[in-house]
Amino acid sequence: MIGTILRHSVVLGTTGALMGASFGVLAVGFGMSPVMACTMSVVVYAGASQFVALGVESAGGSPLAAITGGMLVNSRFVPLSLAVSLSLNGDPEENNPPMSWPYRLVSSHLIVDFSAAVSIAQGDARAARRAFWISGWVLYLLYIAGTAAGAFAGAALTDPDALGLDGAYPAALLALLAPQLRQRRPGIAALAGAGIALALTPFTAPGVPVLLAVLAVAIARLVPVEREPANDPPSPEGES
Amino acid sequence: MTWVTIIVLAVGTYILKAVGPVGAGRRTLPPNVGSVVMLLPPALFAALVAVQTFADDAGGITLDARAGGLLAAGVAVWFRAPFIVVVVCGVMVTALARAIQ
Q1: What is the pTM of this model?
Q2: Cβ atoms A135, A9 nearer than 8 A
Q3: Smallest CA–CA separation between A233 and chain B, in Å?
Q4: Which candidate in B6, B7, B29, B38 is best for mutational testing of the A interface (most A CBs within 10 A)?
């Protein structure tokens, strides 16, 4: 299982590294020093918000506008981190040992979409903690390495979009979401969430559509829970 | 970019991410709240997938190579392909569609 998680993380981490690299290239292009760009990836560690903040400031926006834009994009981490901590704590009846304070403090920083999705996809708290810790660190280190490569080596890098790498994250999230899409309530939550986000995209600032997608939960709760739990065979890769 | 922006954004982002592991800590949630929280990831991830695939830089909705990649990934998921195959399908079809465009 560790091998599977590690393999998945390295695949996604590689595209994460390229995302970091394009941030590094862009940041230096807009006049940030390479050290500054790398520091930002180390301490902020939330790709989309870094691009937004950079875009706002390089377009002449104030630091306040850049921070607000970045925080808006990151607002989804509030509901996401709640779901992560629920999966890391596990069922109270499993009697899992409590997470230590250092683990909680460090794991908070390691929360990104993919590490969250991996840990939520696990069956129990032990597996979730291991999966989160592995994927969290692999993604973090590769992202920073990518930023450094982009910031210092710069324009030598090819355009990741030409390689179709922007198709990697949606595909990966879809794969991790699949078991839930086959159940009634989570499936409806997903459909409604996607619908809400797309409907709001033309009218709101980046980040708002995804945050307000949490309202889909209210819609999903209107439908009754299935009488029997979903009886799907596990996916071929095995979520364990 | 100023250091102030970086530091404030870093602290702010950390606080948002720490709401769960640090804020909610080991408090066990009432079953009702728990069932709401467990429905959050599908809603959020589906929204992210939708925005990453269909939103353009100008804040509009657009259908381009990325939609082809997502469709390919969806077909792979439908046939229960392994994770890596799903990702590779998404990447390759996105690149292919973009090259053809």
Answers
A1: 0.83
A2: yes
A3: 10
A4: B6
Amino acid letter, residue A92: P
Count A/B contacts: CB-CB distance under 8 Å: 306
ipTM attached to this prediction: 0.89
**CB-closest option in A109, A163, A186 to B17:** A109
CB atoms within 10 A of CB A205: 13
Distance of alpha carbon A184 from alpha carbon A240, whole angstroms: 22
Q: CB-CB: which of A57, A174, A176 is closest to B1?
A: A57
**What are the phi and psi torsion angles at A239 (to 5°)?**
-80, 5
CB atoms within 10 A of CB A106: 15
- Tens place of pLDDT for every residue, chain A, 240 residues? 778 889 889 988 988 888 888 888 888 888 899 999 999 999 999 988 998 898 888 888 899 999 998 999 999 999 999 999 989 988 777 778 888 899 999 999 999 999 999 999 898 899 999 999 999 999 999 999 999 998 998 766 566 677 788 888 899 889 988 888 889 999 999 999 999 999 999 999 888 999 999 999 999 999 887 655 544 544 444 333
Instruction: List phi, psi (to 5°) of A81.
Output: -70, -30
For chain A, positions 50-89, list CB contacts with chain B under 8 A. Answer: 53-54, 57-58, 63, 66-67, 70-71, 74-86, 88-89
The total of other beta-carbon atoms located within 10 Å of residue A102's CB is 8
